[in-house]
Amino acid sequence: MFNNNKNRYITPLFVIFAVIMLVMAILSFWWNHYIFIAELILSLGGIAIVIVSVVNLKKYLKWTFKEAVNSIDDVSAGKINMIAVPAVVIGSGNEIIQVNDRFRKLVDKDPEGDPITEYLANKNPDTMFEDNGADTMINDKWYIVFAVKAGESAVVYFVDDNTYKSNSDEYVLSRPVVAIIAFDNREELEREAEEGEASRIAVLVEKVIAKWVSGTTGFYKKINGGRYLVMMEERFIRQFIDEKFKVLDEIRSIQINDRMNATISIGVGRGGNTVKECEAWARQALDMALGRGGDQVAVKKNEVYQFFGGLSKGIEKRDKVRTRVIAATLTNHVNNCSNVVIMGHRYSDLDSVGACIGMWSAMVKGLHRNAYIVIDRQQTLAKSLVTSFEKAGFESIFKTEEEALDIIDDHTLLIIVDTHSPNFLESKAVYERCKSAVVIDHHRMMVNHIDNAVVFYHEPYASSACEMTAELIQYLGDCSLSRLESEALLAGIMLDTKNFVLRTGVRTFEAAAFLKSKGADTVEVKRLFSNSIDTYKVKYKLVSEAEIFNYCAVACADNNTPDIRIASAQAADELLGIENVKASFVIYKTNKTVNISARSLGDVNVQVIMEALGGGGHQTMAACQLENVSMAEAREKLLSIISESDINKKQDAVKSVN
Q1: Residue 477 contacts residue 366 (beta carbons within 8 Å)
Q2: Beta pairing class for 255-256 and 227-233
Q3: Cα–Cα distance, 155 to 158 (Å, whole number)
Q4: Which of 137, 532, 583, 600: CA 20 to 30 A from 392?
């Protein structure tokens, strides 16, 4: 049936086809009589089909129009022009049968025979019959399309809705948006700058902000402490989101001594019912941006966050005033509790277990409270550290989830280290049972974080949880670390800094020096990193089979590989040593879960990539877990996100600068 095409367009095609066949038949007369007869029959048959089809189509159109006219009481063939809005009559196949002059003028052509879906934005004719109709745009004007059934046919009305839509769009685009800007490293720049240089840097930063805001209808006002309040309309935030907030790059181009760049963080609150609500969201978004390391924009709308930037390495805060204040607050809570339970994240590593051991020592020796560590011995990646403590006679300090639940009461204090997400805890049951919790973590802030902690000590500039713990211990009573405890903390620092290569600062080495002074033996620490020969082979098999994609090394492990978690993490580290590799990803499977270990040297923010897959972590070390997917599907998802990122653009930019 030719319901979706015009007769005048279809007929010539059939005629041309039949004529071509007829010409071919005539030409073949002198070549082969049998072929001539066959082609002649086919060409005559084609012509006959064209004639029959055209006759049937005309009959169908005539019958449909007649039925439509007969079935509509208020409209007749001669009165459709009396309808005050553009209108058409459609047949049972949704093709246009009759139109009024207003519709013909609207589309500026003869639309008879066209499918009605050609004039619907969503291409779904059923929406015309709903109570609210269907929105569509014709010649840059908005219309609401309503349809009324009339037997096998229907009458469709196009009601001008352009004024309402324009006003509605303008209302949405003019809604107020609040942004709060923080000059991240103002104090650090002032400390490094020569006399007068700090003022010049501050002026340059403010000029960039002023220029950025001047491109809008909004304004900015300097608050205090290097912070600015910005008001603008929704239309401009959408523009900045599309541009991925280029203002971050402009600020980052401001340098001092050719080695330190200025950075800002921006918290944006949009879509609130009131300006006050937007301002509250902007503050929360700014806290989130700073908690993720700064040099980025966090946009909050209701409970949904969007992040942009986050390319720079965090600036280390050198003073330890906050550490001392946190230690004093923690001491007060410990003194008012009955006992202490300490735990880290699932599949605990040397940093997690080392920080747990350090806090256990501070609780027992410094603050004289009974303390225990919750750990799953079967799933920990720090078995060598746990075994060394058990051999030294400390096996009673490690508790399973069931054992920990038995010793928890209403006054138990829970200390969580090396994670701030309730989804990654060693035991969620223990967390839910305890009424008071303390969080000590260095990973960049995640949207889904523990928000009911009595103490939330979050320092994204720290190298590791063990570094933070080593600093806290010095303020938590008269705590004398043993050699084993010092080595546990030093092992955690060495793990997360890749032997003092990544994310190290002055305070990292100060913490390591403190632990060394307490008897930590670097040779014994090195032994904690020893692997079996099987794990070693698996690691280098992964490295040898890795593929390079957009400056990223991607490797997939075989199923049922022993110690695959340890081997995968170490393989991801090894892959960073390959030339032109900016980030590495190792994919492996455990039970029904596909895991991805991600690493970088800082050029690529692997945390953002892993967050796109539901995971998280740090700028240089992150991971995720995918449920109910195959290894191949996980790899495709990862490659898709890598291809959408601007890793290759960054590399090309570096090449052009060089």
Answers
A1: yes
A2: unpaired
A3: 10
A4: 532
Torsion, Cα 73 75 79 85, to 10 degrees, reads: 150
* Residue 222 confidence (pLDDT): 92
Q: Are 341 and 417 in contact (CB under 8 A)?
A: no
Higher pLDDT, 327 or 7: 327
Cβ-based burial of 129 (10 A; exposed 0-12, middle 13-18, buried ≥19): middle
- Nearest by Cα to 256 from 186, 182, 181: 186
Task: Decide if 547 contacts 554 (C-beta within 8 A).
Answer: yes
The model's pLDDT over 1-28, given as tens digits with 9 standing for 90+, comes to: 334 444 444 555 566 666 776 676 676 6
**pTM, entire model:** 0.68
Task: Show the tokens assigned to 433.
Answer: 């049972």
The answer to whether 203 touches 193, Cβ cutoff 8 Å, is: no
- List of residues 6+ apart from 302 with CB closer than 8 A: 271
Query: DSSP characters for 199-267?
Result: HHHHHHHHHHHHHHHHTSS-EEEE-STTEEEEEEEHHHHHHHHHTT-THHHHHHT-EETTTEE--EEEE
- The C-alpha atoms of residue 556 and residue 535 are separated, in whole angstroms, by 15
> What is the chain's percent helix, strand, coil content, to nearest 5?
45, 20, 35
Phi, psi of 55 (to 5 degrees): -60, -45
Please name which of 607, 601, 605, 610 lies closest in space to residue 638, comparing C-alpha atoms. Answer: 610
Task: Give the Cα separation of 158 and 527 in Å (integer).
Answer: 78
Q: Give the burial string for 318-339 (b: 16+ CB within 10 Å, else e).
A: eebeebeebbeebbebbeebeb
CB 43 within 8 A of CB 51: no
Amino acid, res. 400: T
Which residues, in sequence order, are CB contacts of 570 under 8 Å at separation 6+? 531, 535, 539
pLDDT above 70: percentage of residues in the chain: 86
Q: Are strands 141-150 and 134-138 parallel, antiparallel or unpaired?
A: antiparallel
Ramachandran angles phi, psi of 476, nearest 5°: -100, 75
Residue 657 vs residue 649, higher pLDDT? 649
What are the φ/ψ torsions at residue 606 (nearest 5 degrees)? Answer: -70, -15
**What is the rounded distance in angstroms from the CA atom of residue 115 to the CA atom of residue 136?**
15
CA angle 555, 560, 563 (to 5 degrees): 75
Q: What three-state secondary structure class fits 123?
A: coil
- Name 263's Cβ contacts closer than 8 Å, sequence gap at least 6: 184, 185, 248, 251, 252, 294, 295, 312, 315
User: Looking at residues 96-101, what average pLDDT do you find?
Assistant: 87
pLDDT of residue 169: 80
Phi, psi of 350 (to 5 degrees): -65, -35
Q: How high is the pLDDT of residue 505? A: 85
- The tokens for 542 are 């992964």
How many CB atoms sit inside 10 A of residue 249's CB?
Answer: 11
Contact 342, 375 (CB under 8 A): no
pLDDT 10s digits, 502-543:
878 889 999 999 999 999 999 999 999 887 787 888 888 899
pLDDT per position as a tens digit, 135-182: 898 988 889 999 988 777 889 999 988 888 778 788 889 999 999 999
